[in-house]
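Bug #77: duplicate submission created two jobs. Keeping one. Sequence:
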Amino acid sequence: MKLTSIITVNYHQTALTIDLLRSLVRHAANDAIEVIVVDNGSTDDQESVFRTVYPEVVYLRAETNLGFAGGNNLGIKHAKGDYLLFLNNDTEITAGFVGSLRNELERHPDIGLLSPLILYFDDQTKIQYAGFTPMNYLTGRNKGIGQMESDDGQYDDLTVETGYCHGAAMICRSADLQRVGLMEEHFFLYYEELDWCEKFKRAGLKTGFTGKAKIYHKESMSVGRESPLKSYFMTRNRWLFIRRNAKRGTAIAFSCYYLFFATPFLLIKYAAKGRFDLITAALRGIGWNLTRATNSRHLGVKLPGA
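Kept job's structure:
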């Protein structure tokens, strides 16, 4: 059986990572896997903590926070598997999960990156992700498929091409990754998996969704708490994604839309809530794109409340 390297990034969420490791022990004990935990910017070495749950874990400690892409890229560099499975540390797998994903990837050689059906952990009858629609490059928006539907088995037999995979759970072949390349670390947080999907597509591979494997995600079913950190990166990276992936004329059209319509609307919404900290963060995200190249890092930006 070919080896699957499972990579997860921990950032000050030890309890969540332990829960994920326990679910791997329960549901993947008979699979040929190696488990890699990247401890991102941890102040303490937690190798012994994770080894009490999963003794064979490959523990990698990053001295600084490398972000989502950087943490996963560090794991990739140490992975030995023929397949690479990326799981958020706030997920828990189900029985047969790893084998089902691997089998579907083998059955569909044209698919380079594949995500499973994602259900909310707090209500395991509700769907979070069953695929994404393509991106509208003029607005920088797309839609989730199946979100908040009841899981009545309507996706159980599907493996189809989809607009984008979901960063909470993705699998690819290591051979394809050699051709496509790593995730782009200058996103740091948000949109990096969408950009990675575009890299797979440019390499002639499809992005896929399968309902034959299911995972539970501990993300809230309601809108998450707004913060300056989130506002900065969402504002910054939405524009950065379009700059990197749209054709020049489309990118210019989006820039006009974003500067003169979408951003003012967002700032008015923040002002109505009295969230002037979010206004400052969003404006910094806009300013970054006005002054930086698409391969520049976010480093050196000080955010209020971050």
